[in-house]
Amino acid sequence: MLKKLKEILTSIPATIVGGIFLILSFVFSKLSMGFPIDPAWITVLICGLPLLYNAIRKLVCNRGISKISSALLISTAMIAAIAIGDLFAAGEVAFIMAIGEILEDLTTDRAKKGLKKLISLAPTQGRKLENGTETMIPATEINKGDILRILPGETVPVDGIILTGETSVDQSVLTGESMPVDKTVGDEVYGGTVNRFGVIDIKATKVGEDSSLQKLIRMVQDAEEKKAPMQRTADKSASWLVPVALLIAVITYFITKDIVRAVTVLVVFCPCALVLATPTAVMAAIGQASKHGVIIKSGEALEAMGKATTLAFDKTGTLTYGKPEVSDVISLTDSISETELLSLVASAEGKSEHPLGKAIVAHAKKNNLSLTDSTAFSMTCGKGIRATVSNHDLICGTESFLKENGVLLSPEVSEHLEHFRSQGKVSVLVGESGTCIGILTLSDVLRPEASAMIKKLHSMHTKAVLLTGDNQKTAEYFARQAGITELHAELLPEEKVAHITELSNRGNIVCMIGDGVNDAPALKSANVGVAMGTMGSDIAIEAADIALMGDDIGKIPYLKRLSNATINTIKFSISLSMLINILAVVLSVLGLLNPTTGALVHNAGSVFVVLIATLLYDRKFE
To answer: Mind spelling out the 3-state secondary structure of 228-296?
Structure first.
């Protein structure tokens, strides 16, 4: 009942009514018009009762020093103004506080616009296929394993895998990608994304609260509920400032014998702006980040990212795509061209399940080469394969595998292998009739934005370190390409954690960026962890403090700039609020401010802080 009454009294229409009666009180007093009851009483009731309710609720419900709140201080000031007969000042204090609350709500609502957009995009229905018929059902009734049809222009209701059809999907709400992503049979689609072109049938894999969009919404909601360290410090400071304000007001009264000055001190000393500085900035930054496909899971993570001095990168799947591609095809015999060699090896690898074999087959198909079914296929795990293709008895694999099968390796082959190792490439040797007839190399591919990203970090005086499980030469090659000078290679997961601990012990604030799978321990042990998370990676989402919902590592400098700007905004707002409070207290003690003008000064500080924080939401950081 009381809560409902409070909601009515704090609404915009009620506040407007309070303002009208406050104006009437001012007009009547200037015109010396008699009135049975001062209209300011209506303003006090409408705008003051919610303040009193908040103060009493915190006194009863909160523990320790947190019982003493800014609402208690303002209520005390309002009651004191009534006691000295300044009803207009009491009404103005209450009215301006109500206006401040409304402005704070409006600005924080703007900061939460990114979250509201996500919630509004949550699908409400889906087209279920059953026994050859289509039925529209609520999204809440879709079960895992259901077959769904999505037409062009429709929102994908749940996460799923495409069974039939090809299309392009707008994933911007989840990943921040500006262009639609092509999808075909076997590809994943995510709830909340929009099917742009073709008709597709999908099998539901994650439904309800498990869907990618719902997880994203929960992360943003959780982030807004978690207080940052600076916010907790400000809250504690505010609790201690209230008793200090009361003490100064009492001292002012005993020295000046002027109750008006004492009441004014109570009005201006309220630390509202101090308390508002951190949460409004954090919410604005979280909203800004969500627009760009970056999910910051807490204010604490945002602050840690802003203070980070060293960024440690995993290689595979982070700086690189994590998928091997054919780099070189070298024929060592005049009788077989490089194209023929690729066709032969791809045909031999056609039955292989090894990632390198699959990459070779994919490369051959990409170049429209015709492949032949192999015979006498056999595979030795971790070493290579044997197969017969078009009367060619081929042995494909590692250097040791070919030697084990009687293939001689010339000095020319050894030179090639050493050269390719220095480039971080994996070599697949091809042998026939005891001779090495060719070499295929495969390599991970550095993300094109990686080098520019590292340069931007260096320009922000942020150190970059590479931590990888790859061999030393491969690590050196990719580090050189990316522009990273410090690297540590051939690391097990626990060794990555040890290196992060060592960096921290050297006085660094460490941010770890990884793929969230084998890097989970490192992501947890760093001051802040950032996951290069595709939407389907639960481990990436759970292990990291921040998740890049697309695989765009180029957003790291944006994230760093946003975090830095948030820290600077908080510091500036806290300094501004403290400066305004100190000046207002001095002016109040000197009698230059009264309760009415003091209330204006106090609330101006709060509004300034909120507006400054909200500017983060639309600021450009690219």
So the answer is: CHHHHHHHHHHHHHHHHHHHHHHHHHHHHCCHHHHHHHHHHCCCHHHHHHHHHHHHHHHHHHHHCCEEE
User: Is residue 103 domain-shared with residue 240, that is, in the same domain?
Assistant: yes
Q: Is residue 128 part of a domain?
A: no
Q: What averages of pLDDT result for each successive group of 10 residues across the chain (622 residues)?
A: 74 86 81 75 86 80 65 76 80 76 60 55 82 86 91 88 87 56 84 83 85 64 50 56 80 87 80 70 83 81 89 87 86 90 93 84 91 88 84 90 89 90 86 92 88 93 88 85 90 81 90 73 83 56 72 88 90 85 88 80 78 82 66
pTM of the model: 0.65
**Does 612 lie in the same domain as 585?**
yes
- Answer for the pair 423, 446: CB distance below 8 angstroms, yes or no: no
Helix (H) or strand (E) holding 575, with range, is helix 555-589
- Angstrom CA distances, 332 to 297, 339, 435, 440, stand at 55, 13, 10, 11
Catalytic position from the list 86, 314, 444, 551 = 314
State the residue range of the domain holding 199: 143-207
Residues 466 and 401 in one domain: no
Q: Is 470 a catalytic residue?
A: no
Residues 453 and 543 occupy one common structural domain? yes
> Nearest Cα to 349, choosing from 316, 304, 310, 386?
386
pLDDT of 218 reads 63
**Shared-domain flag, residues 153 and 43:** no
- The DSSP code sequence of 31-74 is TT---SS-THHHHIIIIIHHHHHHHHHHHHHS-GGGGS-HHHHH
Residue 125 lies in a domain: no
CA neighbours closer than 13 Å in the CB half-sphere of residue 622: 3
Q: Give the total number of structural domains in the chain.
A: 4
Looking at this protein, which amino acid is placed at residue 392? H
Nearest to 232 by CA among 266, 278, 193, 267: 278
pLDDT given at position 534: 56
Whether residues 108 and 232 share a domain: the answer is: yes
What local confidence, expressed as pLDDT, does residue 65 receive? 57
